[in-house]
């Protein structure tokens, strides 16, 4: 086991890693920007190092400063959390070349899954079902037209190096194609420094279902069931649950086997997520693989009974995964409580928290780094807290979430709590029969 781990992140995920390390008897180093000087991860780590000004590029994305912080504190491993440098193959390579264990997959695994078109080709070779589309990146609008002539409309243009909905454009007719192609390339170049795009057939009425996998350096890979992340806004997840209300035992086994095959195809180590689109006929297609811990990992922890952060650390230290029969226990749901104003197009709402009371009770968990008096900075992600509930059934979990949301008091900034309350009282959500268009249609329902 490691002696000391540096956490190259902030907020609730940094605290989450610190807690797991303390349970394992491992010392921790927090890094922080000047904007996070009073953050809880700074207070709870054994040591803390300021790595720069508030902008991410000068602090949490500054690789030389992070490596220097690890070296001066004698850390022997780095946990990247999620976001920032978590899926940066170059960062993982620098960690390893600096004598630091990167708590995540090997650089080549990150690289092979980071380029979405290359990932699709890898999955085809591994026998995993992929969405029909281009064989690699699309060079120009003329090539895009030739591909669409083969697969038909509607289609989706996607950034090869992308994620989070950036560089994505749905196209339903030939008249829209060329302009959408150019816009997607421009967005991809601005967001990721890489303008390459690829094309997929648009799956209609889809659900977003992902499988949690764990791999070790001994070649073992297991899956821990699915999470349903269908409730999204602009391709950003808002609510996640496990198990999915529409996935049967047989389908779970099929998707789990496909996810394990996907992970083995890239010699995967650590925690990762294989994401699928599920169509109206319950056919599933590989979409992408996130080579890191996910924001929504707690719902899997609650039903699988496994600490995923601890598991990440243990396999990075060389421990062997124990084979286990998946037996999902109950139902878990997570709401992302963001500092945003849902009445004003979800506009970010930074500011000082004048009141902050989290709900409690059996089966209620809140992962947060917020506290009364905390100043939410405008520089980073707007995630304020993750509210997770567990119940014996989905209906029980939904009722528990309604109570927990009502108890959650945040003053000083706007939050997405009113939006979540509206969702959980919605009959279509309660039925479990919806797709990724749910949020867009919510305002139009009586």
Question: Can you describe this structure?
Answer:
It is a single chain. With 446 residues, the protein is α+β, with helices and mostly antiparallel strands. It folds into 3 domains: 4-103, 3-Layer(aba) Sandwich (Rossmann fold), CATH 3.40.50.20; 132-201, Dna Ligase, domain 1 (2-Layer Sandwich); 207-442, 2-Layer Sandwich (D-amino Acid Aminotransferase, Chain A, domain 1). Helices cover 34% and strands 26% of the residues. The strands form 6 sheets. An 8-stranded antiparallel sheet has the order 13-12-9-10-11-14-21-19, sandwiched between helices. It has a 5-stranded parallel sheet with strand order 3-2-1-4-5. Strands 7-6-8 form a 3-stranded antiparallel sheet, with helices on one face. Strand 15 (340-341) and strand 16 form a beta hairpin. It is globular.
Mean pLDDT across every amino acid position: 95
Question: What's the shape?
Answer: globular
CATH architectural label of the largest domain: 2-Layer Sandwich
Number of domains: 3
Beginning-to-end CA distance, first to last residue: 56 Å
According to DSSP, the number of beta strands is 22
Q: Which secondary-structure class do the elements indicate? A: alpha+beta
**Strands of the largest sheet, in order across it?**
13-12-9-10-11-14-21-19
Please tally the helical runs, counting DSSP H or I stretches of 4 or more residues. 15
If you compute it from the alpha carbons, what radius of gyration comes out, rounded to the nearest whole angstrom? 21 Å
Measured by DSSP, the beta-strand proportion falls in: 25-35%
Low-confidence sequence ranges: none
Helix percentage: 25-40%
Could you please say which CATH topology of the largest domain applies here? D-amino Acid Aminotransferase, Chain A, domain 1
The CATH homologous superfamily name of the largest domain equals: ATP-grasp fold, B domain
Biggest pleated sheet: 8 strands, antiparallel
What is the highest CATH level, the class of the largest domain?
Alpha Beta
